Amino acid sequence: MKPGIPKGTRDFSSTEVAKRNYIFNTIKHSFENFGFQPIETPSFENSETLMGKYGEEGDRLIFKILNSGDYLKDVRRNVIEAVTISSVFNSLLDLLIEAQKREEGNIDPFFDNLDLVFSQIKNIKEDQKTFFKTFFTDNKEDVKSSLELFFSEEVFEKDLIFELIPFRERLYKKLFSKHIDEIKVLDSKKNTSLISEKALRYDLTVPFARYVVQHQNEITFPFKRYQIQPVWRADRPQKGRFREFYQCDADVVGSTSLWQEVEFVQLYDTVFSKLGLNGTTIKINNRKILSGIAEVIGASDKLIDFTVALDKLDKIGKDGVVKEMLEKGISAEAIEKVQPLFNFSGSNQDKLASLEAMLQGSEEGLQGVADLKTVVDSVESIGLDSASLELDVTLARGLNYYTGAIYEVAAPEGVKMGSIGGGGRYDDLTGIFGLKDVSGVGISFGLDRIYLVMEELGLFEAVELPKPKVLFLNFDENESLEKVKIIKTLRSNDIKAEMYPDVATSNNQQKKQWKYAINREIEFVVTTIENGTLVVKDMVVGEQTTCSLDELINKVQ
Amino acid sequence: MKPGIPKGTRDFSSTEVAKRNYIFNTIKHSFENFGFQPIETPSFENSETLMGKYGEEGDRLIFKILNSGDYLKDVRRNVIEAVTISSVFNSLLDLLIEAQKREEGNIDPFFDNLDLVFSQIKNIKEDQKTFFKTFFTDNKEDVKSSLELFFSEEVFEKDLIFELIPFRERLYKKLFSKHIDEIKVLDSKKNTSLISEKALRYDLTVPFARYVVQHQNEITFPFKRYQIQPVWRADRPQKGRFREFYQCDADVVGSTSLWQEVEFVQLYDTVFSKLGLNGTTIKINNRKILSGIAEVIGASDKLIDFTVALDKLDKIGKDGVVKEMLEKGISAEAIEKVQPLFNFSGSNQDKLASLEAMLQGSEEGLQGVADLKTVVDSVESIGLDSASLELDVTLARGLNYYTGAIYEVAAPEGVKMGSIGGGGRYDDLTGIFGLKDVSGVGISFGLDRIYLVMEELGLFEAVELPKPKVLFLNFDENESLEKVKIIKTLRSNDIKAEMYPDVATSNNQQKKQWKYAINREIEFVVTTIENGTLVVKDMVVGEQTTCSLDELINKVQ
Which listed residue, of A42, A413, B66, B262, carries a Cα 20 to 30 Å from B308's Cα? Predict the structure, then answer.
């Protein structure tokens, strides 16, 4: 067996772990610096906690965990039941066909003498008799017309599993449509809840909402929490998209203050500045402005089409955008009303003024402008370290759940990469778990993309890799104990040090130890000890010197 | 729906995360200080990587992940096949019974005219005819005698799923025993590989072995790796045993040096000393000594019984131990030979001398004594910070895979807790994945138990909890911007600070802000700013003062 890992997952080498941890720790430090507190939730949740929260697509992409023990028990029971009822149904159908032939199409006698019919079926159970009797009595006319229709079809076959035979199945459905769901056995989707009760975390937001509701009496609101944990999605893996990846989220729940929206802009700026990722653009928008635009163009269902088209202004020009909007069914008058958006440049203040004029007809839109103005004014007054804030009305991410601020961060210009962060405000995070009217606002950092951008820009140079600073070669058994004692002293001075474990008994083995030092890029190699003096080779400059232990400590620290 | 989490899993509050991270970071720091490098492996592995590596019990306790998409496809195909063949079998059986009655027990005509028989079965397929024909032809005598036996039974029933009917099933098995495995449908165990190809990590050792083999060309050996990641086990949850928990492992592969065994004693000592967990006992043994004892008592299969009984010396005394050993079938002569173990006290050196005398008859045993002496001598010469090293011949953990050193760490005396760490040497870690003769030695830290011990001993006092150091109350909107600017300065001085986001517009709301400060145990509260001077309340001493921003920074840092 050639060892491998599931597609879409990754092993991380020491260097990769060190670089990733550098990003994690920077984000964590800033989160805590801003007053956010960490929580952690289990890797898997009860399925009912996750299912139905991410739409149909999400439900499909959630990794489900098989129940322990005899997980097929319920499925087996259903199959047996279905096969049994299907068998009785088949026998009934045979008898019906005979009756129909015998009576030349008149099947009334069949229905009038059901007990006689049942007596001809082997092993029919009492509850099945009751079921079919009630069914035939309650739906006599329906069944008769269904049967007539059925017999008018020329082809039909007989088998035991109704799913195999389209004609029979159609009749079966017609006759028992109410019951078809229960007996549609071995359908993958319908059986999932029978064999799986737990599922892997799909994002951090739903578990967070569950956490807040479950622990509401232990939490002090407003609750500023952060969470850095892996999530899992059964997405088709592709470049930069994995089945296991980390999310880094910071959210505040229980406050509607715009100061929180200001703070998240500062938080993005702080983290990216600390990472040395200068020149990021924090794009901001407000859902209410989008609602205002929808109101002005008189078509809220066209909002996505509108923003998608508008987003292409740079690429296809005004005429192209207008053409696309018209094609999507947005009226010429509506487009006329939002003219200012086609020359939407200048400072954030210019844009706000332009929006304010444009959205005079929409109360909600004006509220959005006011909110955004508060955020923009505050950020301008406080100042950012390395990022710039840019009002972007085409920003429409999470349109279905964001209700206020919408954020997205673009990597520094020149780096080809999608957004490296995003977030927004949602008015009802915890409602799905029964705690109403809790507003939240939060942002997320895209670890894998940030990693790629930093790699591209060479920003990992400063990261200390997990390797010894000093290696003691092991050529002479008589020196080993002394070396180990010196290593203890180095380590207690917080200097990473180790001795090559196996003593070299040949030239080749000595070479192997030197190769180890080179492969692991170790800076200082102690070859031997002469009367308490260390013989040290500086592997970077390639120079060999002798020094005392204290001198080595000073040299290395 | 009342929100909850799966049994055996845990939510971690901020305080718990902070305390756990304190332990993780201490372990991590020491691992790296000792020259170990981190790796990370995916949360789930291909099932074939994990299954069969932990025994039958382990296979049962591994969490399996349901395949995506139509995961029941193969199961469905098998069921349909089985039901179909079962139906043909039932029809054949009906015809056989008729034939048997008709011919008064002579069923030869039945076998001689199989084509005639098949013609009476509706919808029988060609491949089924071939299957049954070959079967009846090849096994005529067998089938006949089986049938006679079957007919001598008084009770039998007829149904479609053979599993439901014991008599029919027995006949079915007799007739088709070679095929029963394929058609034993919907058995949970047998279907797992059809519906699940991935499984959650069960420990860190097997994924590490897989990693080493897969990446052998990128790795420099000896490879000192550490790994701190969660693992999952479908164990019955109980106090201190969880379904999701972290393992913290450090291992070296590719070296047989005893210096590594010395180093792990030092590593345990360093980590526990740094955690303030003074007075731990690092118990050590060597598998070869156990083999020597087995040789001396002349019964290697009784080794576990022997060590288990010997371990009770303190509790039940020498007579009790001897009695138990005799009951377990260890001979009186054998017990006589290992007399020294019943007075096994004194220093490690005393114990080694006693063992050396006792194991003179066993070459392997003497090798074990020599190895252990090297480790004990070295550790004594180097010195430990807070732990003590204790030779313990009853230490027999992992007897099935450890081949050299065996470690176990006991919490400080007075704390009731099982081992808080353990490990040992294994000669063939990577053999299961095709890389032979790679020796490894490693240790593990039991995070959850260490956490409980530290909680009991009050060792978390020093841990800095993730909460702001300074809270700015928000009573006056006109001050907010200035406060936010001051907070920016505090944060850039690495002081955790925040402003209460929502402005208080009533007495009650002001109280709520004070309550927030008290609940989160925030040390300094800035109430207001008067002409650039901050009004600060020290919440610990309950004193209110005024100071400049610089003074606040000095006070808080």
Answer: B262
